[in-house]
Amino acid sequence: MINPLVGMPQGLEWLVILAIVVLVFGAAKLPDLARSSGQALRIFKTETKDLRDDTSSTDATVTPEQREIEARNEAASHETTGDVVRERRDDTTA
Questions:
Q1: Which residue of 15, 21, 23, 26 is surrounded by the most CB atoms within 10 Å?
Q2: What stretches pass through the bilayer (predicted)?
Q3: What is d(CA 58, CA 61) in angstroms, rounded to the nearest whole number?
Q4: Is the dihedral of CA 10, 16, 18, 21 positive or negative?
């Protein structure tokens, strides 16, 4: 259950937050701050889109044979025999 006292700011709270931001950053710096945060958001979106495109394009170029080979290799790497080999080693450093 969500606590009704903690939530999104509404009405007058937004004005107080805006006043604090203006006092902290100054009115002259606000356009630069908004511009740089917009550029950062745009770069972030393009990078995530590029990552999604890269993963979908690599999945499309992998042949079924390659997928089968990768699955076999992965299964072989996770396979265990259950045998534990213990060896006694002589300590020659002392």
A1: 21
A2: 12-30
A3: 5
A4: negative
